[in-house]
Amino acid sequence: MAGEAKQGIIDGRAISKQIEAELTEEIASMKADAGIVPGLATILVGQDPASQLYVRLKHKACDRVGIYAEDQKLDASITQEELLDVIENLNTRADIHGILLQLPLPQHLDAKEAMQAIDPAKDVDGFHPYNMGNLMIGDEGFVPCTPAGVILALEYYDVDIEGKDAVIVGHSNVVGKPMAAMLLNRNATVAVCHVYTKDLKSYTIDADILVVAAGVKHLIKEDMVKKGAVVFDVGITEEEGKIYGDVDFENVANKASLVTPVPGGVGPMTIATLLTHVTFAAKEIE
Ligand code: NAD
After folding, report:
1. Which residues form the Tetrahydrofolate dehydrogenase/cyclohydrolase catalytic domain (predicted)?
2. Domain 35-119 falls in which CATH fold?
3. This prediction's pTM
4. Which of 171, 196, 234 to mutate to test the pocket of ligand 1 (most atoms within 8 A of CB)?
5. Going by C-beta distance under 8 Å and a sequence separation of 6 or more, which residues neighbour residue 48?
6. DSSP conformation class of 240
7. Does 95 participate in catalysis according to the annotation?
8. Domain 145-267 maps to which CATH number in 3.40.50.720, 3.40.190.10, 3.30.70.141, 3.30.450.150?
């Protein structure tokens, strides 16, 4: 899939639109040929506004391509046992192929145990240790959607990964660590930086591919980026109703060969990857 670079800006919305068009067709034939409608269940515990928004965006995307989506809205006071019962029930349902537990959970709940209760075959977020373990040994099945979206964009824009110096800022389980594994699986030389890294710039300045997922507004300035680098900005910071990324986009765009905007970059590709995973999960049981 070869894309067209528009003035050095990675157009996440355009990539996701193309993926959605392909999935819409695929899902229509799955329905017509085998009577299968891919199904996603999201689990939303409590009333966190950001989580509510993310779940809404995922449901809207499912509607656009023909995936059945339902939201298990659970009260913030739910017990761990009740949450595990909901997951267990979804694990057994034939019409649900993907289960997504929206994080963060209220403090009294054990997110790790809940994640591990999801059937790995329905773990479309790719957070289950079984799927994470497979990713580490180079067997990529369900992998976390955000780093998978970055790989998708690299492929879309025909960026070679092999032999490149890749630097990731952020070492979370959902973005930084799986991103590192996915780039290593494609033979990049990978450095992972984080809040304890002594001299961040000394790493970022050498990156051919730079992925930033720290959640710190404009952490990465123009002088920290190598000329011609490909830069992915995963971060989201909201300030007075405006969304900012981790990269000083205006200035870095002059220096990078490709860079993602925020919003409209990594976010839509993350959702497109989720849709792909749900469709794949449904095909597996065909
Ligand atoms: P996290 O809080 O779990 O991890 C943040 C990471 O950044 C940690 O490794 C931390 O050490 C590092 N970090 C923090 N400050 C730093 C600094 N000053 N210098 C260097 N490293 C620093 O976050 P996460 O869940 O990985 O998410 C990161 C950001 O990406 C957040 O803003 C989040 O909202 C966003 N996000 C966006 C998407 C999307 O689809 N666009 C998906 C997931 C996360």
Report:
1. 10-125
2. Rossmann fold (3.40.50)
3. 0.96
4. 234
5. 104
6. T
7. no
8. 3.40.50.720
